[in-house]
Design goal:
The chain has 22 helices and 8 strands. Helices cover 51% and strands 7% of the residues. It folds into 4 domains: 183 residues, Rossmann fold (3-Layer(aba) Sandwich); 88 residues, no CATH class; 96 residues; 113 residues, no CATH class. A hairpin with a 7-residue loop joins strand 7 and strand 8. The N and C termini lie far apart (57 Å). Helix 4 packs across helix 5 and helix 8 crosses helix 9. By secondary structure, it is an alpha/beta fold.
């Protein structure tokens, strides 16, 4: 059971780019020591326009409470995906079960087969959370972080908020929600009695926070003094250039500290290029960073940049660097008569993916290793890449082209990797539960890349809005149905996600004009 000792306090740490004063206020609310908060509040709603630091605060709390084994779930909405709240409560239940074995045991007793296929958030909430909660003692402060609620499609967002509104008081008080959103998309939520609202745009101390943050970042680890070439005047110039946008200062500091790669010869050179040269506003800052990082790129290499960023932004769940390299490898080889047979991490030629990601380390999260899932740290960076008037030569193109590419690549990967007996099971008469190393066999037989393609290939086809006659790989779909359909079913069954089969086949029946 998770500790419930009184006076629990998380480690006072912050990720680079976090507004320290607001972070401390959020911590006191989580621990129930904020005197200004409503005693019945269950959610801390952090409001602010793009660049005010909402996501960096959320990511900092995720890291803190994950380290303390008190992160109930981290759920980040992306407007470019087709995923709604149908996975929301499943994600929370699965994460809490990982924290508490007794909860996991109770959850198994309540779970039934309908929960494997239902998309009803209300049914999921009742069966996976509120019923099991009744049998458990207090869990202590467990944090559920919902980042970028405003990116959730309007109909899904309203359904999720109404579901929480009707059931939130059935949650233990120890389950604490942190929600970030832009103000315009959270009007209904901020009026709920169980929500404590904090508006970053009304925070008069923002410049002071930015100044403290910049000074805390630009120090030499050995001397604890400002880096050579920096003084209070230059710190002030960074604060002035930020114009109240904490994200601007955070990105500039990360770029200054990220020396030794690409064009970044020295911290002061980065400062001169980004601040002295006049990169005011987030769009100008992003354009300046990308221009410096990829100035030597040829036109084909810039196209590679657009493809990689398009896949990151339009994927239906975050992709790892390894998955992006696998996609890139298929993209490079599928034009030839034969495909590369291996999907392992030992391939030497992965194109530009590592170079591109390394150059964007200050703008992307999940860069710890090849298998961590990558995501944009700031929604404003996504907006920048998706609007040609802002990003110029770095505009990644229409979303339809990326969905077509991902659907095509998925078909190639499934044709390459699907086969009979995906988990190498020696006996087809035994139930999965009777195989001691079943999970290990599944993991060895079904790569993350293959699982993603099996789940989402028709989703990308649907979101491309392309017709059957327009799709260049229509012959591969026919071949897939003729040869690989059973093996595809097997993968989905092994991974306990057979509900994807019905969605995919229903779409194909409507999409295809073949009688």
């Amino acid at each position: 059971m998770i500790s419930t000792r009184p006076g629990f306090e998380p480690k006072k740490a912050a990720l680079p780019g976090t507004r320290l004063g607001v972070l401390e206020k959020t911590r006191t609310w989580i621990n129930g020591t904020d005197e200004d908060a409503n005693l019945e509040s269950r959610a801390f709603l952090l409001l602010g326009k793009a660049g005010t630091g909402k996501s960096t605060i959320a990511h900092s709390l995720v890291q803190e409470f994950k380290q303390l084994r008190r992160l109930g779930a981290f759920f980040r909405f992306l407007s470019l995906t087709d995923i709604g709240p149908e996975h929301f409560f499943r994600t929370i239940a699965r994460s809490i079960a990982d924290l508490d074995p007794s909860y996991a045991t109770v959850l198994m007793n309540f779970a039934d087969s309908t929960l494997n296929t239902t998309t009803s958030p209300t049914l999921q909430l009742m069966e996976l959370l509120t019923k099991p909660f009744k049998t458990l003692s207090a869990l202590g402060p467990i944090v559920v972080v919902i980042d970028a609620l405003d990116e959730c499609p309007a109909d899904h967002r309203l359904e999720l908020i109404q579901c929480l509104q009707e059931n939130i008081m059935l949650f233990p008080k120890s389950i604490r929600f942190i929600i970030t959103s832009r103000p315009s998309e959270a009007a209904y939520l901020r009026g709920c009695s169980w929500v404590h609202t904090y508006d970053l745009e009304s925070d008069v101390s923002v410049d002071q926070d930015i100044h403290k943050f910049v000074k805390s970042q630009l120090v030499h680890s050995a001397t604890n003094q400002l880096l050579h070439g920096f003084d209070d005047e230059r710190v002030d110039s960074i604060v002035a250039s930020a114009e109240g946008l904490f994200q601007y200062a955070a990105v500039v500091c990360k770029e200054i500290l990220d020396v030794g790669s690409s064009w970044k010869e020295s911290p002061f050179q980065v400062y001169t290029h980004l601040v002295t040269a006049g990169s005011r506003g987030l769009d100008a800052l992003y354009l300046n960073i990308l221009g410096a990082s990829f100035s030597s790129f040829t036109k084909p290499q810039l196209e590679g940049f657009r493809q990689v960023m398009g896949r990151i932004l339009h994927s239906q769940e975050p992709l790892s660097q390894q998955m992006l390299m696998n996609f890139d490898l298929v993209q490079m080889t599928k034009k030839h008569s034969s495909l590369v047979a291996s999907d392992s991490s030992d391939q030497d030629n992965h194109g530009l993916v590592p170079i591109i990601l390394q150059s964007l380390g200050t703008l992307l999260g999940g860069m710890e290793d090849n298998h961590s899932r990558i995501f944009p740290l700031h929604s404003s960076f996504c907006d920048f890449l998706l609007e040609e008037t802002k990003s110029a030569q770095f505009f990644i193109g229409l979303k339809s082209s990326h969905h077509i590419s991902l659907a095509s690549i998925s078909l190639h990967i499934m044709e390459r990797d699907l086969h009979f007996n995906m988990a190498s099971l020696e006996n087809s008469y035994l139930p999965n539960s009777a195989i001691p190393d079943f999970e290990k066999r599944v993991k060895a037989g079904v790569s993350c890349t293959l699982l993603y393609t099996c789940q989402y290939w028709t989703t990308h086809l649907k979101m491309s809005q392309i017709t059957e006659a327009q799709f260049v790989d229509i012959a591969k779909i026919h071949h897939f149905i003729d040869v690989f359909l059973v093996f595809w079913f097997e993968v989905l069954a092994l991974e306990r996600c057979t509900n994807w089969a019905a969605k995919s086949l229903n779409f194909l029946c409507q999409w295809s004009k073949v009688s």
